[in-house]
Design brief:
The protein is mainly α and 142 residues long. It is 26% helix and 3% strand. The protein folds into two domains: 39 residues; 63 residues, no CATH class. Strands 1-2 form a two-stranded antiparallel sheet. The protein is rod-shaped, with a radius of gyration of 34 Å.
Length: 142
């Protein structure tokens, strides 16, 4: 749709731009050019909007992007404090593997590292206590 920006068309654009016409009206006057092409060319030429002087923005140094850090966990409401299971886990083999809580306890590589092994909630990989730790609770907006 563009016929190209010849010197004559650029001069005409500059003249029309200062009259207060809209970019669409200028595009119509120039012919064979779109409103967006007029706006883009005016911006590249540094033309200001009528009534507004063009102010050059000072270049700001780019701020370093912050490294991702996990937000501190929000404290649970006092009436919903999760309690650790009081009973001992069932002996090995008492529950099928898919029904044992797979929440890691301790640090991998250390001698006391193990999985919880309590009975899981239906459809979850963890027991009730570890589900309360592992999953976020939806809050209802007031």
């Amino acid at each position: 749709m563009s016929a190209g920006w010849t010197e004559e068309r650029v001069t005409r654009l500059k003249d029309l731009w200062g009259t207060g016409m809209t970019a669409a009206q200028i595009a119509e006057q120039l012919g064979n050019v779109t409103r967006n092409a007029v706006i883009g060319k005016a911006n590249r030429l540094g033309l200001s909007k009528p009534g507004r002087p063009r102010v050059a923005k000072a270049a700001k140094p780019a701020a370093p992007r912050p490294r991702f850090t996990r937000p501190a966990p929000k404290p649970e409401p006092e009436d919903v404090v999760p309690q650790a299971p009081a009973e001992a886990p069932p002996p090995p083999g008492a529950l099928p593997q898919h029904r044992r809580c797979q929440f890691p306890v301790g640090h991998p590589g250390e001698s006391d590292f193990h999985f919880c092994d309590h009975e899981t909630l239906s459809g979850k990989p963890y027991c009730d206590y570890h589900c309360s730790i592992a999953y976020r609770h939806r809050t209802v907006a007031a």
